[in-house]
Amino acid sequence: MGLRIHFVVDPHGWCCMGLIVFVWLYNFFLIPKIVLFPHYEEGHIPGILIIIFYGIAMFCLVALVRASITDPGRLPENPKIPHGEREFWELCNKCNLMRPKRSHHCSRCGHCVRRMDHHCPWINNCVGEDNHWLFLQLCFYTELLTCYALMFSFCHYYYFLPLKKRNLDLFVVRHELAIMRLAAFMGITMLVGITGLFYTQLIGIITGTVEFV
């Protein structure tokens, strides 16, 4: 199935998505700079752990972009209704267009979406029939990346051997504790939020209230 490109003009959504990108960039550059590379250089961790971190981070970013710009299942203005399915279509009282049942009108996007689950400001897009699986991918990779980063933050202070070589002239080294506390706060916040969202999505799929297509 080809994925159609779809953009939503919503300043609120752009701000939310920009915040997600900021958190991603913050951890993408600072976790390796403060934790991974110094401990690798001193032989405390193997290089494969750094490669895994960057791999998960890139999967997370790609999933975010794809979920954000993929058409969630927007209905065209003049849809072709199969003759045998006319009884399963209804008129939307907001945009006055015919739509199949289980479709919903998104007031933020201004159109109807097939099997719409919800409008997510964090991806600045609706979650519907054509991008629901991409949204679940994003939740999964975000959860994985967050757990990975938090694990290294914990090991940095409580498990790894102390670093012998530290360049105190670097800003990130002099303010390491504050930077890592901010990273941990963002990580825990993301983990709690994504875990709750991912759980409700999976329960919806299992119980049939949400269809995964």
TrEMBL record:
Its EC number is 2.3.1.225. It holds the Pfam family DHHC. The DHHC domain is required for palmitoyltransferase activity. PROSITE patterns: DHHC. The keyword Transmembrane helix applies. Belongs to the DHHC palmitoyltransferase family. This is Palmitoyltransferase. It is an enzyme of class 2 (transferase). InterPro entries: Palmitoyltrfase_DHHC (IPR001594), PFA4/ZDH16/20/ERF2-like (IPR039859). Residues 89-209 form the Palmitoyltransferase DHHC domain. The lineage of its organism: Eukaryota, Metazoa, Chordata, Craniata, Vertebrata. It comes from the Eukaryota. Keywords: Acyltransferase, Membrane, Transferase, Transmembrane, Transmembrane helix. It is a multi-pass membrane protein. It is found in: Membrane. It catalyses: L-cysteinyl-[protein] + hexadecanoyl-CoA = S-hexadecanoyl-L-cysteinyl-[protein] + CoA. The keyword Membrane applies. The gene is ZDHHC21. The chain crosses the membrane at residues 12-31, 43-65, 138-159, 179-199.
